[in-house]
Amino acid sequence: MDVLILDGDQQVTYSAKNSAFAAGPLELTKVGNEKKYLVSAAYPDAVFQYVKSEEFMLNSIINRDFGKIRSDYDDDTVFERELSSKTIYMLSRIRTHGSNSTVYVITVPTNVPGGMIALKVTGALAMLFFCVYWVLVALWLYRDAAKCRLSPLYWGLIGLFTNIIGLIVYKIYKHSGAICSSCGAAQAADYLYCSFCGSQLGTRCEGCGAKVGVKDCFCHQCGHQIK
Ligand SMILES: [Zn+2]
Ligand SMILES: [Zn+2]
Questions:
Q1: From ligand 1's centre to the CA of 202, what distance in Å?
Q2: What's the complex ipTM?
Q3: Measured in angstroms, how far is the CA atom of residue 75 from the centroid of ligand 1?
């Protein structure tokens, strides 16, 4: 692997590893129908596969099928015959703003052992975590609805199908009413007594008749002093 910096005239001004490509001008020209491959007149034995910089790392770590790259190159450049003698390099260009120099990263694609497996395992784990999270949301909805006596099966299913959206709707629905402090049941906002355990949820204002909390000192509607 090497990192090259080229000036506007395609002359190599810097080479990180002082590799074979450090010597001459690296004037790259595209070959093939899909223009994915580049060649340089100075290095007739080399073929460069152009890879976008964001894909460069991924392409470097996953276990690439080099036979496939070679046949892909062959398909793309049918006119080229003496290919087997060439080395295929992977090349990426890093954009340098406001200067006419170019930075190239060149590497011989090497198989990282288990690279693809590691990638698949990571993907599978992410999927597993996502499934666990999904089911946990549904389970939490089921249990909380059971605790508040709000049809647990119904809310559990909503959680299973709509997940976080169902959870938000549930929260809004629950907070639109009152929760009994004794048994935890969700009750309509205007109930004075819990319909499950009989605990007092509120009282009426003597001034205007509005429902006020048991611990309220003043009526929120008319300002009447309760205690
Ligand atoms: Zn209650
Ligand atoms: Zn009042």
A1: 12
A2: 0.90
A3: 75
